[in-house]
Specification:
This protein is of the alpha/beta class and 489 residues long. The protein has helices at 102-109, 165-182, 197-213, 240-255, 261-264, 268-289, 295-309, 313-318, 325-331, 363-378, 392-397, 410-419, 438-446, 452-455, 473-486; strands spanning 9-15, 18-26, 32-34, 36-46, 49-64, 67-78, 89-93, 112-114, 129-131, 141-145, 154-155, 190-196, 219-225, 338-340, 348-350, 424-430, 458-463. The chain has two domains: 47-55 and 77-230 and 364-486, 3-Layer(aba) Sandwich (Rossmann fold); 238-323, no CATH class. β2 (18-26) and β3 (32-34) form a beta hairpin.
Length: 489
Amino acid sequence: MKKALSVILAFSILISTGILTVFAEESPEGAVVQDNLVTTTHKTVIQGKTVNYTATAGTMAVESGGGQCEIFFIAYTRDGVQDLSKRPITFAFNGGPGAASLYINFLCLGPKRMELDELGHAPALPAALVYNGNSLLDLTDLVFIDAVGTGYSRAVSEEDQFIGYTNDIRTIGDFIRLYVNRNGRWGSPKYLAGESYGTTRAVGLCEYLSDTYSMGLNGLMLISTVNDFSEVFPTPGNELPYALYLPTYAADAWYHGCLEERYQSTVLEEFLDEVRDFVSNEYVPALFKGRSLSDERQEELAKKIASYTGLKKEYLLKANLRVESESFFEELLSEQKLMIGRYDGRFTGPLTSGSNDPSEFDLDQSLIAAANRCITDELKYQTDTPYIPLSLDINSRWDYNCNNSFLAQEETIYNCMSANSFLKVWVLCGYYDGATPFYGTEWVYDHVFLDDLHRENLSFSYYPSGHMFYLDSDSFARFREEAEAWYQP
């Protein structure tokens, strides 16, 4: 293989729809890969005020780990900013790990948002995009990144070079460094916002950017967090998920009115405090004992868990007090022939076999249509390449690089926060999130042994919503208020 030759050509072509900027770089295989970027101008209304902004959409050629890829991104930068050193910039992405960034862009942070009804679903198909009054664009510039194999991002060389925990972090980190360098943002406060597996990516990127490029970050926004996979995957020898999911089951049962009056009449947060106390002081020790737990004690615990979760005592005894999440979603309202959502336990649908989730039944088709329309019609990015919102193939091939154990980031979080006293970490949880349970997130951060000074940089927010808190209008409005304070220096 010939030694890589890097030749960067920069020129601008003014076209009627915007400005097309092209960078060409020769790949290690000799093929020339070009940036394909389109720039357009727009306006939106945020918190009742008009915000003018420039959008840049397209692919950037990135050489990473000896291979080349094209990373698709959408950047929104506020017009009229005189001093970029005082203007924050936030790089955002979803998880999956094979999910594109359209969810966090067109439902949460971006200047345009898919229209939703009061239940968090699109009122029509195809869905419309409207001004996002809770966008963060007035507070920070935004760059939404699609990982290789998602959105329009594609590998030029062997795809496996960009898939997996380590490869993905390196590739996205190299993209961020290029973007910062080419757009004069080294002096700007820098933030990462990730959702679900995107929170795993964000923590890994924080370490990579610091260690590789000496790029210190100002903040991590971690939405529906998973930073230790032992909290969500029950396996022989790992019974943590049975304990860490229980408060989520209790919240779902409370929401659907499945509990005794003494709990239904209690404020949710107070009820969950009691459940947390039960889990840590009674349930976990019982799980530890396994088969040696006496029949009498098992009977007592089954009765108590039933009172918290709405499940029948007999069902719990048959399950040896260990209820997996998918079973709970199907069992809670089974007598009504209903199942509840995994991503959002508030939603219900017909009880069916398979993996149908009532909380996402119409979201993807509506959102994909709206995102494609925005990218092609408004942002003027044209391509015949299909947009991949979620790649199950990427998910199935993902290497978590965890040496025959669960990927766990407690030490990484500790090192990043301890080394950078300016790094703020904001953890956002939904009480009805059955994908990344809030109590599991608490458990992870209780095992990040920060000193008191650095612990002050860690904050939590809880919303009466599911995995995507922004589908709930009240939660979304509160998030916006809290974000204003969080972005303050």
